[in-house]
Write a structure and sequence with these properties.
This protein has 130 residues and is of the alpha+beta class. It has one domain: Trna Endonuclease, Chain: A, domain 1, CATH 3.40.1350. 28% of the residues lie in helices and 35% in strands. Strands 1-2-3-4-5 form a five-stranded mixed beta sheet, with helices on both faces. The radius of gyration is 15 Å and the shape is globular.
């Protein structure tokens, strides 16, 4: 799988840029897998879902966590119980507006760790993880 990442000339990203880099990388991976991207950065009064996709008939709510180090824990550790509850509320809100609440859905987390050159060092996919 060929992945291209846009470099920041000074090799530093603010949190928003780092998040966008990870989300764009995940969108490329999802498209390569044949998933349809339904929404990116879906916002509601409950917060934001990074990516909403359709995979083999299921609606997938995707949280992307991108980090440059594990100093404060792995990226996926940031999806704690509070964040999971928030994602569930946002997903139900999305489903109520766009699909029937009984539509099949799941929650995936993409955990991306970048190296010093802002290239993916590791990408973990936690499918249907909560």
């Amino acid at each position: 799988m060929a992945i291209s990442v846009v470099f920041n000339l000074n090799n530093r990203f603010n949190n928003r840029e780092l998040g966008a880099l990870g989300e764009n990388l995940v969108i490329s991976i999802l498209k390569e897998k044949g998933c349809a991207i339904l929404r990116q950065n879906f916002r509601s009064r409950y917060g934001e879902i990074d990516i909403v996709a359709k995979d083999r008939g299921s609606i997938v709510f995707i949280e992307v966590k991108t980090r440059k180090s594990t100093r404060y824990g792995t990226p996926e550790e940031a999806v704690d119980l509070r964040k999971q509850k928030q994602l569930r509320l946002m997903a139900l809100h999305y489903l109520s507006k766009h699909f029937t609440p009984s539509a099949g859905y799941r929650f995936d987390v993409y955990s991306i760790l970048l190296n010093k050159d802002n290239q993916p060092e590791s990408i973990k996919v936690l499918e249907n993880c909560f």
